Amino acid sequence: MPAIDLARLRKQSNRLADFFFLPDEFMKHLREILEFYVNNTLRTKENVAPGSVLTTYHTPPAVLTQIQNSLREAAEKNPRFALILADALWEESALETRLLAAYLLGRVPPEEESMLPRLSAWTQQVRDPRVRSALLTTSLDRMRMETPRKFLDLMREFLHPARSKSWSDGLHAVLPMISDADHSKLPALFDLLEPVLEEAPSTLQEDLREIILALYRASPRETTFMLKQLLAESQNPMTWITIRRISHTFPSGLQDELRGLVKAGSQPAAPQEFIQPEGDRPASGGFPSQTKAKKKQKEINRPYHQEGRKSHSNPNKVKKKI
């Protein structure tokens, strides 16, 4: 691999951007650039990225960054052509071309209707962790920053109780918003994430650890309160088990706050079945919710309360009387 001459690389990238509206020509010139900067010392016989099924040129990050910078303005001004070029890059099935496809997706305005279907389809296809990460972060940059409400609506789809298979993607995607969020957005994030923290299986342990650490950096007091509440009230044994397993990675202040609850290891006794008097049963056979008083009490007990802050309790869960 030749040493990277930044002036030459800039010229090559600008020349490549001239073919933005011609996908076939763009792909031809892109391959030439990637081959020019290929790192042969890292090439293997199969030429496949480690932990991936994608071929790779082992391109230095500086090269991809410069190519992205050269495409940014054209992609933002011409979103329809950006999506066409992104499709061509994705179909190439190389690590570098798919990273560029994810980048272009993130430069498309959030209002572009055909952006989200691509994101959904590509996240289901991808196995490479770097491409997955780019799709869940870089590809959602503009939506997360320009239309946060739309982004949160999308996260509610990812983290829906009935779609646990997409929880990992949702947790990964929401991390940048936690890091960038001001205090006005934090209540919505806590409401969104608490049910998942309570119900997530052990396979999401690492995702949960990153979420808790990000929440604690953003709001130590509220995060501590939420975790104490989960440990004290959750009837899901995995809640305590998961927090116990990852608690050694928490900041010392949070470890101290949770130590008693984590060491206790006791879970609330299983609720006894509540048999409502025959005359009080609704005709449908269902039972009325018993959570309103508890929800109100949680609102009162919170360390701080902001307008728009909803209950942390899982709205899909109905706790029965003991």
Structural summary, described in words:
This protein is mostly helical. Helix content is 60%, strand content 0%. It is built from 16 helices and no strands. The longest helix has 17 residues, at 61-77.
Ends apart, CA distance between termini:
70 Å
Count of strand segments? 0
β-strand percent reads under 5%
Shape: elongated
Low-confidence stretches: 266-297, 304-322
Write down the oligomeric state.
Answer: single chain
Specify the number of helices.
16
Mean pLDDT: 83
Biggest beta-sheet profile: none
Summarize the helices and strands and which ones pair or pack.
Layout: H1 6-17, H2 23-36, H3 61-77, H4 79-91, H5 95-107, H6 115-125, H7 129-136, H8 141-146, H9 148-158, H10 167-180, H11 186-199, H12 205-218, H13 220-233, H14 237-246, H15 252-264, H16 292-301
Helix pairs in contact: 1-2, 1-3, 2-4, 3-4, 3-5, 4-5, 5-7, 9-10, 10-12, 12-13, 13-15
Short key terms for the protein model shown above:
disordered C terminus; elongated; 16 helices; 322 residues; mainly alpha
Quick summary of this structure?
Helices cover 60% and strands 0% of the residues. It is mainly α and 322 residues long.
